Every structure is written in structure tokens, then in C-alpha cells.
Amino acid sequence: MFLVVLAVILALMHAYLWKRLVKDTAAPGRSRRIGTAAIAAGFVLIVCALLGPRVAGLTGAGWYAWPGYLWFGLAAYLFLVLLALEPVRLALRGWVKRTPPAAPESGPSLDRRLFLARTGAAAAGAVSVGLIGVGTTTALGRPDVLNVPVRLRRLDPALAGFRIAVVSDIHLGPLAGRGHTERIVRMINEAEPDLVAIVGDLVDGTVAELGSAAAPLGDLAAPEGTFFVTGNHEYFTEDSESWLSELERLGVNTLRNESTPIRRGRGAFTLAGVNDIVGARRADGPDFERALAGADPVRPTVLLAHQPVQVTEAAQRGVDLQLSGHTHGGQMWPFHHVVSMVQPSLAGLSRVDSTQLYVTRGAGYWGPPVRIGARPDITVVSLQSEHD
């Protein structure tokens, strides 16, 4: 259903782009036919990028996924910029209508309308290409490493300075492969965390297709181990159980509605993890009661949960800190406004009642390989006691 709705939206968007970029700027003839074909081809490329890997698998998908997703991003910004120019276009169009022609046979009003249409299209193209260039460079570049201190009540001073590397939304798939994983693993290991938390949306494909791309996760080095919770994308493949087995083989511990104590000296805290909300479609959804059943009430609890919205239940159960991803920080401004409508936080540290929520912007991307106003990151959360 999501893909059907998205296809309808994309079709309407491309119809608008055709009107403004082709019909309004080119007279009937060869140029208009070429422009029409290009807009239609762009729409087909996006549909292929969205559906092709699901239907035909990831093998060989890169040749159409890259141009398809890049056009997706470019088309989105062309649409937004042209919409922003609509008031200007309408105002100038009225001015053109009020301007009397110098000579009836020359049709200067028509010439001015064509000039305005072409100028608007050129401006939209220049702005959109510039944005996509910057956004693609950001998305494909090195993630930021953020150091975030978080004070927890009841944290034993022996655990002060305990470092948790939080990474999310790696999104291995048709556009991101083994090199992407290797860089992330190298950066995490260079940060020398005590524990690594991968909070969902690791893969967009099967173990057979992406097992080698995920293999470098076995090189993660943290004294207290590496832990994983499912994201919504883990349930978009029929291979989710195989992925959990593969991660266990790589030494990545999956917390499936369960918890484990993390100890240092005389101090300890409970690390818990819940499945993603989408898992409920497969009778594998979040179970907070089960996940927190082993939590020690006199020690702090750190919860791994892919979606920030899960903090509502976490707060009701007295969780001290929830670590999440999912939002990509909005990924492409101004679409972060849409994400903000359904999630309590886009990125960073916030509070819901007595529970602190930290949301990473993620180390990858989904859809267009573009990030604007939301740089990728790997976060090292440093736990501090209230008395430090």
C-alpha cells in the first residue's frame, strides 16, 4: 500500500514537472517530445529503483538504482523549487497580460511568457542540481563522530565514563555495500567504545545478497560486546530470521525483547532491547514487559529501540535512557517536517518525563543517496553519574 501511494504521488509530481519544465518551455515538436520522454523515463527509473531489487533481487541492480534514486532526489527538489516560484510566476504572468504588444504581428506577450517559463525552469534546475550535488557528497562522505555525555540517575560511579557507540540506519543494499560497512566499523573501533549498539535498519536485502557486505561487522571490537535490535527494514525482507542468525555468527548479539546486565567493577546497568513496531505484522513486535522483566530497579536501564516513538512506553516503565535511530535526522530538508509529525525527536538528546531519549541521525541513507541538513553520524554516548 505504501508503494502504491508513493507511485501515485510520484506520478502527480512528474505530471507537474512535465507541465512546468516541458510544456511551458517548449513549443510542440521535437524538443517537447524529447522532454516528455525524459520526464517519463525518470518516472520509470524511480519505479524500477523502488521495485526492481525487491522483485529481481540486488544482483545487477546498481545500474538502474543509482540513476533512479538520484533522479528521485533531483525531481523532489525541482518540484519544491518550482512550487516556491509559483507566486512569482503568477505575479509576472499578470504583468505580462497587462503589457500591450508593441506590434500585433510580433506577439511580445507570448515571447515574455516563454521567457519567464524558461527562466523559472533554469533557476529551478540550477538550485536543484546544486542541492543534490551537496547532498550526495554529504551522504556518501565520512559520518561525523559525535561525543554526547548523558547523566543517569542511580549510575554507580564505577561506570562513569562508560562509552556506548550508537550506530543506526546503515541500510546495506543496492547503493551501499561492503566498503560502507568497513568504514563504519573502522570509525567505531577508532573511537574505542566499551560497547556497540546497532539500533536497527541494517539491511535491505537477503543474507545471500548482502552477507559479504555485512561481514565486516565481525571485526567490531568492544570489551562488553556488540548488540543489535531490529528496525522496520529488517521486516521488509522474508529473510529476517536468517539475518539474526547471521549476526549471531558474526558475534553481534541480538536483543529480541530481552535484557542483559552490563557490569564494571561493583557497578552495573541493565541493557535491554525491544523489537521494532513493524515486527508486530509477523507476531514479532515489541514486548516491553518481557524486555524489562530482568531489569534491576536499583540500577539504571538503557533501552535499545529503533523508533523514537517507542519512548512513550519506555517512559511509562521507568527506563532511564533510550537509544534510537530511524529518522535519519529528516535526511532531506524540508521533509524533516513530515518526520516530526510522527516521531517525538529527529535527532539529539531530549527528555520524555523521566526518560532521556537520544536519537542518532544514522550512518547511511534510504532512497536518494542525499542528505541535506542532516549529516550522517556515529554517536559515542558517555554515561555519567549524577554526582560527577
From TrEMBL:
<dbReference type="GO" id="GO:0046872">
    <property type="term" value="F:metal ion binding"/>
</dbReference>
<keyword id="KW-0378">Hydrolase</keyword>
<comment type="similarity">
    <text>Belongs to the metallophosphoesterase superfamily.</text>
</comment>
<dbReference type="GO" id="GO:0008758">
    <property type="term" value="F:UDP-2,3-diacylglucosamine hydrolase activity"/>
</dbReference>
<dbReference type="GO" id="GO:0009245">
    <property type="term" value="P:lipid A biosynthetic process"/>
</dbReference>
<dbReference type="InterPro" id="IPR004843">
    <property type="entry name" value="Calcineurin-like_PHP"/>
</dbReference>
<dbReference type="Pfam" id="PF00149">
    <property type="entry name" value="Metallophos"/>
</dbReference>
<dbReference type="InterPro" id="IPR029052">
    <property type="entry name" value="Metallo-depent_PP-like"/>
</dbReference>
<keyword id="KW-0479">Metal-binding</keyword>
<dbReference type="GO" id="GO:0016020">
    <property type="term" value="C:membrane"/>
</dbReference>
<dbReference type="InterPro" id="IPR051158">
    <property type="entry name" value="Metallophosphoesterase_sf"/>
</dbReference>
<protein>
    <submittedName>
        <fullName>Metallophosphatase</fullName>
    </submittedName>
</protein>
